[in-house]
Amino acid sequence: MSLVGQEGGDGGEPATALSSRERALAFVRRFAAGDVDGLALLLAEDVRVVGPQLDVASRADYLAALQADPPRPAAARALSVTGDGDTVAVFWEYEKPERAVTVAQLFRFRGARIAEMHLVFDTGTPA
């Protein structure tokens, strides 16, 4: 299932009428588009982000990391989306020109904002 053109709203503040599933997919779309400013709108100020290359506990720190090494715009394809209330897991393909990267992302929401993200992907470097 493609993620192109499926985001509702005007791209501004996250709409509280959107489900947690829709907000998680909005994050994936904006990340794959390289839209760091758009990502900021989805994050709680005290968001916790844990992944293979990052462990931060604020929106400012996460955005600074993205500004230093911005996501390259590429296609994104959802493989699976599951959720229960304020927790959503998204498995997706980040289709970079050099290779596709399978990403597993667990989102926890507080209201309309992402409060916690756990990210797993192949970094492409041997252990």
Q: pLDDT under 50 segments (min length 5)?
A: 4-11
Name the beta content range: 35-45%
Rounded to the nearest angstrom, the radius of gyration is 14 Å
Instruction: List the strand order in the largest sheet.
Output: 2-1-6-5-4-3
Q: Between the first and last Cα atoms, what is the distance in angstroms? A: 32 Å
Structural class: alpha+beta
- What is the 3D shape? globular
Summarize the main sheet.
6 strands, mixed
Mean pLDDT across residues: 88
Number of helices: 3
| Total number of strands | 6
Helix content: 10-25%
Order of helices and strands: HHEEHEEEE
Provide an overview of this structure.
The protein has helices at 20-33, 36-40, 59-68, and strands at residues 43-51, 54-56, 75-84, 87-95, 100-110, 113-121. The protein is an alpha+beta fold and 127 residues long. The protein has a six-stranded mixed beta sheet with strand order 2-1-6-5-4-3, with helices on one face. Strand 4 (87-95) and strand 5 (100-110) form a beta hairpin. The longest helix is centred in the first third of the chain and has 14 residues, at 20-33. It starts with 19 loop residues before the first helix and ends in a 6-residue tail after the last strand.
